[in-house]
Amino acid sequence: MKIMFFMSTIFFLISNAFILISSVMSKKTNLDREKCSPFECGFDPKSLPRIPFSLHFFLITVIFLIFDVEIALIFPIIPSFTMTNIYIWFKTSIFFMIMLLLGLYHEWNQKMLNWTY
């Protein structure tokens, strides 16, 4: 019991020392006007920092992320060709592609892919 308390205390002290050292070393003291200004972001820094974005930018980003994840899910289909039965592999691949196409059709039908409304 004493050794467990001793080890816990040592662990607690070492972790707090790391936190203290990292907070001391990571402080930035030289704040320059140029460092605080945006760098080629496309917006006028003299205007308000909270410029409302079109919701369509957000929707396109979400659609991109969804299709990016779907592409990552397609990659394991190719190596599984040699490990499984061709009939099962073909049915699984076709089912997955149909699901992707149905998702694309739904987004197209909801006019999510149109840039202007």
UniProtKB/TrEMBL annotation:
Entry EC number(s): 7.1.1.2
Gene: ND3
Topology of this chain in the membrane: Multi-pass membrane protein
Catalytic activity entry: a ubiquinone + NADH + 5 H(+)(in) = a ubiquinol + NAD(+) + 4 H(+)(out)
Function: Core subunit of the mitochondrial membrane respiratory chain NADH dehydrogenase (Complex I) which catalyzes electron transfer from NADH through the respiratory chain, using ubiquinone as an electron acceptor. Essential for the catalytic activity of complex I.
Pfam families per the UniProt record, alphabetical: Oxidored_q4
Gene3D superfamilies in UniProt: NADH:ubiquinone/plastoquinone oxidoreductase, chain 3
Enzyme class per UniProt: translocase
Protein family membership: Belongs to the complex I subunit 3 family.
Parts of the chain that traverse the membrane: 53-75, 87-105
Organism ancestry: Eukaryota, Metazoa, Ecdysozoa, Arthropoda, Hexapoda
The entry's keywords: Electron transport, Membrane, Mitochondrion, NAD, Respiratory chain, Translocase, Transmembrane, Transmembrane helix, Transport, Ubiquinone
Keyword Translocase belongs to the record: yes
GO cellular component terms given for this protein: mitochondrial membrane; NADH dehydrogenase complex
InterPro entries xref list: NADH_UbQ/plastoQ_OxRdtase_su3 (IPR000440), NDAH_ubi_oxred_su3_sf (IPR038430)
Organism: Pieris napi
Locations listed in the record: Membrane; Mitochondrion membrane
GO molecular function, one term: NADH dehydrogenase (ubiquinone) activity
Protein name per Swiss-Prot or TrEMBL: NADH-ubiquinone oxidoreductase chain 3
